[in-house]
């Protein structure tokens, strides 16, 4: 008797789970797709930093020309500063006042 009761409860639970799942799955799939799309967009932006949007000629931290490749940028006093690496950006932001001259600003 007790076993039958438990089986009934389990059946009802499974039924509820089965009913609830399709909607949850749709929501999850939508969220997953969106995340994937965002990640793809981020990657695309990271790969296509256009030198034209930058206001500096050189990575102020390591002195590398921005034309050699920019993987991160920072805004400083309305200027867009390009850096070869996130580490260079972090280093610059520790003391931008002292490092900004090395960036050789264009405008
Ligand atoms: Zn650098």
Give a structural overview.
Residues about 40-45 have low confidence and may be disordered. The protein is rod-shaped. The longest helix is centred in the first third of the chain and has 46 residues, at about 1-45. The chain is about 55% helix and about 10% strand. The protein has 2 domains: about 1-50; about 50-105, no CATH class. With about 110 residues, it is mainly alpha-helical.
SSE layout and pairing:
Blueprint: H1 2-47, E1 72-76, E2 79-83, H2 86-94, H3 96-99
Antiparallel strand pairs: 1-2
Short recap of the structure:
The protein is mainly α.
Dominant shape: rod-shaped
- Average pLDDT, to the nearest integer? 78
Spatially, the strands of the biggest sheet line up as 1-2
Portion of residues in beta strands equals 5-15%
Tell me the radius of gyration.
Answer: 26 Å
Number of helices: 3
Span from first to last CA?
Answer: 84 Å
H/E element sequence: HEEHH
| Count of folded domains | 2
